[in-house]
Amino acid sequence: MNRFYLGRLAHEFGATWMRFWFSKANDRLAARMRIAIGIICLLWLYSFSTDVADWFGPKGVLRTQAIRNIESSSLLDSPASQWRFSLLDYCTTNSQVATFHLVAFGLAAAFTIGFATPFTSIATLVAVSSFVQRAPILFGAAEHLLLSAILYLCIAPCGKHLSLDALLSRRGKTADDLTPTASESRSVRSNIALRLIQIHLAIVLLYSGLTKLSGVVWWNGDAVWWMLVQPESALVDFSRLGADLYGELIMNAWTYAIVGTELIAATLIWFRLVRPLIITACVIVYLSLIPLTGLVGYCSIMIVLLFSFLHHSDSGDPKLCTA
Amino acid sequence: MNEATTDQPKASTDSNAEITTGQVVISMLVGLHIVFLLACVFSGNADSQLVRRLASTAAPHCAIGLRTNYAPDFHLSQSMDFEDDHHFEVVVGNEVVAKFPSAQTNETGSREGFRYQRFRKMARQAAKALVSEDDATLSELVRGIGEYVNSRDGTERMVIRLVAFRPYDWREEPPQALADSLDPVFYEELYAADVWLARSGDISVHKRVPPAEAAPPVGSSK
């Protein structure tokens, strides 16, 4: 190893880094992701519609003081607790909580249809984050991914296409003005947002796969069995699978497919030749996890985030990168 | 890193092109974000001093919306007891009047819904707290269920139980045992508490202990 090698390494790394982050990406993909994430966000907020005050009201399930007590206890104490911030902490009556929920729903709806997107994307992030930070003990992987996705979409001009903003900006323009040039429909901001989503997803896939390896049930192929025999979680009764040898073999294969796909995807998804196969395998695995675990929200968000790896041609038609 | 998903105009990303201050600042922020993200995500499982310190430094950053200190269940299953299905049972008199969550009633929504998952997460956190002997968390969660029932039905006195489903191993149990997984034989009570509305208007929780572990009444010779 000499200084020429190190110099060349630094030069190549720098050039790759610049290409990776500061190329331009098609804004339509960010717009499509905005719609998909927005719909999940609306469903998530809708799930509070019947009992938001019961959860977060002054006499709700988990009052602010209860959360503080929980966070100061030994089990869940963490540095992040000190930085918890939620606008819901300032809602002191049931009607204020209900109003906040209504406003959050309205913001998420505006974000989904792409109205005043630069503002509503940030406002939706603050609103959804306020729910999660108000009682973080209630939330898990789905909310973590949902918040992350909204955060990254705040960076992209995701309201530039397929949005009310785009529709409004076209009013009063001639047909010539309406044809976007290639440079107008691509931006570095979209690229940075999509790259952050991709990296975040790869980290989650890697962590998810590695954590599974620490459990013996993923090594001996039993993990799927232990999930499907949970009567309150599994959506479909697969328990007959365990009654014979073939069933056991299927469950073993299913278990290895889940952990193997996650570990392989975290690394190989960056190679464009195998990317279509990896994305397809991941979609199949996460679809298979829905009846197994009932985690519809988590699996849906994972599938949506996988589509951040889709390439967009100038025509705006999504296609898997194959070249 | 592969630049597969974007169009790459060579002119703007050529290594000889001038790098702007903005790109340097963005690069530093992105790099920092990735390091913090790694620390936050992996701190859910890692216990090294380095990761702990990094996660501590990253805490304000993670509070933006990437909060991970409750260790999202990315692993799905480790076959730990607290990962089995759990639910809270509310008993009034001798009758079970509600279960949280329950796929059999409409109280907590359908199994695939976010609302159901919230109750499920709550019951699982209670089971986790029980394993860790974290009474403060456990009693706050039970008090929360008490508040919920009180505000919905007006019930002022109840017993709340934490019940676990204990799955069976098909290689040890006969296949016919699979016929009814809701059979009470598969359920185990882990915790019970008397819960009532105090005169102050707050919900009080008093954990029940087995008679063998209870202190003798004052004045008792035993």
Beta fraction of the residues of chain B? 15-25%
The quaternary organization reads as heterodimer
Order of helices and strands of chain A: HEHHHHHHHHEHHHHHHEE
Lateral strand order in the biggest sheet of chain A = 1-2
State the separation between the terminal residues of chain B, measured CA to CA. 73 Å
The greatest interface between two protein chains, and residues involved on each side, is: A-B, 114 and 91 residues
Give the overall pLDDT of chain A as a whole number: 85
Radius of gyration of chain A: 23 Å
Distance between the termini of chain A: 34 Å
Order of helices and strands of chain B: HHHEEHHEEE
Provide the fold topology:
The complex is a heterodimer of chains A (323) and B (222).
Chain A lengths: L2 H20 L2 E2 H20 L5 H5 L7 H9 L21 H20 L3 H18 L6 H15 L8 H7 L4 H4 L7 E2 H26 L2 H4 L3 H6 L16 H24 L6 H19 L2 H11 L4 E2 L5 E2 L4
Antiparallel strand pairs in A: 1-2, 3-4
Chain B lengths: L9 H4 L7 H22 L6 H14 L23 E7 L2 E6 L13 H18 L3 H19 L3 E9 L21 E11 L5 E5 L15
Antiparallel strand pairs in B: 1-2, 1-3, 3-4, 4-5
For the structure shown, list the relevant keywords.
heterodimer, A: 323 residues, mainly alpha, two-stranded antiparallel ribbon, 15 helices, 4 strands, globular, B: 222 residues, alpha+beta, five-stranded antiparallel β-sheet, 5 helices
Task: Give a structural overview.
The complex is a heterodimer of chains A (323) and B (222). By secondary structure, chain A is mainly α. Chain A has helices at residues 3-22, 27-46, 52-56, 64-72, 94-113, 117-134, 141-155, 164-170, 175-178, 188-213, 216-219, 223-228, 245-268, 275-293, 296-306; strands at 25-26, 186-187, 311-312, 318-319. The longest helix of chain A is centred in the middle third of the chain and has 26 residues, at 188-213. Chain A is globular, with a radius of gyration of 23 Å. The model of chain A is unreliable at 313-317 (pLDDT under 50). Chain B is of the alpha+beta class and 222 residues long. Chain B is built from five helices and five strands; from the N terminus they run αααββααβββ. Chain B has helices spanning 10-13, 21-42, 49-62, 114-131, 135-153, and strands at residues 86-92, 95-100, 157-165, 187-197, 203-207. A five-stranded antiparallel β-sheet of chain B has the order 2-1-3-4-5. The longest helix of chain B has 22 residues, at 21-42. Chain B is elongated and about 80 Å long. Residues 1-5 and 7-13 of chain B have low confidence and may be disordered. At the A-B interface, helix 1, strand 1, helix 4, helix 6 and helix 7 of A face helix 2, helix 3, helix 4 and helix 5 of B.
